[in-house]
Design goal:
By secondary structure, the protein is α/β, with parallel strands linked by helices. It has one domain: Flavodoxin domain (Rossmann fold, 3-Layer(aba) Sandwich). Helix content is about 45%, strand content about 25%. It is built from 5 helices and 7 strands. Helix 1 links the parallel strand 1 and strand 2. Helix 1 packs parallel to helix 5 and helix 3 runs parallel beside helix 4. The chain is globular, with a radius of gyration of 14 Å. The two termini are about 15 Å apart. The structure holds flavin mononucleotide. The site of flavin mononucleotide (FMN) has 15 residues, from helix 1, strand 3 and strand 5.
Length: about 150
């Protein structure tokens, strides 16, 4: 078994639906050897990250940056994980009202410091909520779980 951690900030019904879609995609019936753990960022800790073989991060954009909850997560896990998680494969989901680039680059700056490895392009779901965000998030989750199971990264 390999372990996939999903740390996603879901402060609204729309963001909850996106997080659930990521989890549903990762839980695809055809993927059998992946253990999934989902944690809101305020509850996730360094033990969760050290447990993970790959991680999916989900954040809203707030004031041109990642959510405060996601920043708090990084503040707490950065030094406890710095030495042991280099190369950790990750993917990023951003939910934004209009833009999303500020949240994306703020996460990427920190994970560059952690030396995690981006294995999928960031998915930015922005603007008015659209129903096609859901399959995009399912695909993100499924691709990460399937890639981890297959040993692609
Ligand atoms: C305090 C606050 C700041 C925000 N700042 C930004 C921002 O800088 N850029 C942006 O695109 N959206 C911004 N938003 C919109 C959120 O990203 C959006 O509300 C969030 O993705 C949840 O989406 P939903 O409203 O569809 O549930 C902000 C929202 C709040 C509450």
């Amino acid at each position: 078994m390999k372990n996939l951690l999903i740390v996603s900030h879901s402060p609204s019904p729309n963001t909850k639906a996106l997080t659930e879609a990521v989890v549903a995609g990762a839980s695809n019936d055809d993927i059998e050897r992946i253990c999934i753990r989902e944690r809101p960022p305020l509850q996730a800790d360094s033990g969760d990250v050290l447990w993970a073989n790959a991680i999916i991060l989900g954040t809203t954009e707030n004031f041109g940056y990642m959510s405060g909850a996601m920043k708090d997560f990084f503040d707490r896990i950065y030094y406890p994980c710095l030495e042991q998680t280099q190369g950790l494969p990750y993917a990023l989901l951003v939910k934004a009202g209009l833009d999303g680039q500020g949240a994306k680059s703020s996460v990427e700056r920190i994970v560059t410091g952690l030396r995690w490895k981006q294995v999928q392009p960031a998915l930015i779901c922005k603007g008015e909520f659209r129903s096609d965000f859901i399959p995009q998030c399912q695909e993100l989750g499924m691709t990460m779980a399937a890639g981890l199971e297959a040993g692609v990264f």
